[in-house]
Amino acid sequence: MNRRLPALVVFVVAPVAALAMFPLGVFHEVPPAATPTFAALGQPTMPFVPSASFINATWFCGGVPNADAASGGSVTVANPTDAPLSGQITVFSDADGTTAIEAPFQVPPRETFRQVLSEMQPKGGYLSAMVEVAGGGGFVEQLAATDDGNAVSPCSNSTSSNWYFADNYTLNGSTEDLVVTNPFPDDAILNLTFASNDGTRRPPALQGLPVRGNSIIVISQDKLAKDEAVLAVTINASRGRVVAARAQHYRGERSGFSLSLGAPSVSAEWWFADGEAGPDVTFERYSIYNPTDADVSVTTNFWGLQDHPEFVGVRTDTVPAGNVISFTTADFTGLPDGRHGMTFSTESDAAIVVERGITRRAGDGFATSVVFGAPQVFGGYTRWSMAIGTDLAVDNVLSVMNLDFLDGTVTVKALGPGGEVAIPGLEAVPLPKSGVLDLTIPDQAAALGVPLIVESTQRIVVERKLPRGGDLRGRSGSLAMPG
Predict the structure, then answer these.
(1) Is 98 domain-assigned?
(2) Helix (H, G, I), strand (E, B) or coil at 279
(3) Which of 138, 154, 170 is the last residue of a domain?
């Protein structure tokens, strides 16, 4: 049977038949649907870019540390439109006895609004935010700051009953906090599952954890497995829906700080744009987590190495049900120096979660960044946005991977008073088919400290490598937002 036939029936035959039957009176004119009062977001994704007009758009940010004067963070709302945006920000805390604090905000056209969370709520070891934008539009990200560096993360469009983390590293004194926000008034109930090289565990103390409404619970390092190089986590809410993030301070063979949302859903494909081999890279590790009840076959493929046909960059692994595996790019013989991307795909659309940890030299030391790939739902975008760009003119801020087998071009725009303006020198940059490239933001005032937009003639994935902040050397990686 022709596999295209069902699609032809749905997308060609059915509309034609409908048009033919309309004059015969089989179909009657239907009055316009009433304006919806809530957006039906469907399966949660991270992050979310509206594809329609909504009464409100709600964003959920993972959380920032607030333990001392050396840590903190903020939320940034970017408004790329020609009209003001208004809304409300709600800040949650993990401190006992605190209540959520609300405040209105407004973002002028083509500008940003930045809220330091501790200015609204000074109490608590962690603070998180819910941002409600009236009428939709805009995009929202958070910045977390510590002595070990800053970390930028997109916020999510939705809560979820499941959150996944594939790369949880607790070797050599590295520490980790799982930060879970319940932004709703009713209590939620959590159950945690851990997977490592020696199997799956469900500690009794981490089953049935209550999270009171409008608050944060922190599952700290003393409750997690120690000395694990490969550890995956599922956070399941058996009651309610939550937002889950992970904060990590790295020690030993890793160094730096990472804080980002988990994955709210699994995916059959994952794409990574920021791979690199060479003397400045200590290691590049990928962790593949299979939280399902069946074994999954996963094929890994290097991207952007067409000029090196002698290199065999394909491998297939079986990830047992409920387990996690990892490998480094050093496992591949003859990997050429330079840029590369990575793709992960499963058979029969089985679903997995994949994270990458990459450690690069930074001055006299080194810095580690851990990033989720772009899941399959992000695979159709030719435009990616960032509410938080770079404050410094440094090399290779953006990594772009071409998902199509056609040559294309890439243009980087800065959002300013004049709207989205192409940055000189970053207009129609050639992007080879299935290729990867790094882009440098020039030392121009209009391109620094402002939101950035990357547009291409082909489907792309965009990662960024922002300076860690302060006097620290090295970069902090994060995925940009599709759309």
Answers:
(1) yes
(2) coil
(3) 154
Reduced to 3 DSSP states, what percent helix, strand and coil does the chain have, rounded to the nearest 5?
Answer: 10, 50, 40
237: in domain: no
Domain termination site, one of 131, 154, 177: 154
Instruction: Determine the Cα angle at 425 with ends 424 and 428, to 5°.
Output: 105
Other residues' Cβ atoms within 10 Å of the Cβ of residue 441? 24
Q: pLDDT tens digits for the chain (483 residues)?
A: 433 333 333 333 333 333 333 333 333 333 333 332 222 233 334 444 434 444 458 999 999 999 876 679 999 999 999 999 999 999 999 999 999 999 999 999 999 999 999 999 999 999 999 999 998 888 999 999 999 999 999 999 889 999 999 999 888 889 899 999 999 999 999 999 999 877 899 999 999 999 999 999 999 988 887 788 889 999 999 999 999 999 999 998 999 999 999 999 999 999 999 999 999 999 999 999 999 999 999 999 999 998 999 998 999 999 999 999 999 999 999 999 999 999 999 988 889 999 999 999 998 899 999 999 999 999 999 999 999 999 999 899 999 999 999 999 999 999 999 899 999 999 999 999 999 999 999 999 899 999 999 999 999 999 999 999 888 899 999 999 998
Q: DSSP letter at 184?
A: S
Q: What angle do CA 282, 286, 288 make, to 5 degrees?
A: 160
To which H or E segment does residue 20 belong? helix 14-21
Amino acid identity of residue 41, one-letter, is L
Lookup result for tokens 């590369």: 340
Q: Domain containing 99: what range?
A: 56-154
In a domain, 345, yes or no: no
For the entire predicted model, the pTM comes to 0.87
Q: Is residue 294 within 8 Å of 337, Cβ to Cβ? A: no
Q: Which DSSP string corresponds to 191-258?
A: EEEEEETTEEE--GGGEEEEE-TTEEEEE-GGGS--S-SSEEEEEEEEES-BEEEEEEEE-TT--EEE
For residue 169, tell me if it sits in a domain: no
> Who's near 11: CB < 8 A, 6+ residues apart?
none
Residue 403 belongs to a domain with what CATH number?
2.60.290.11
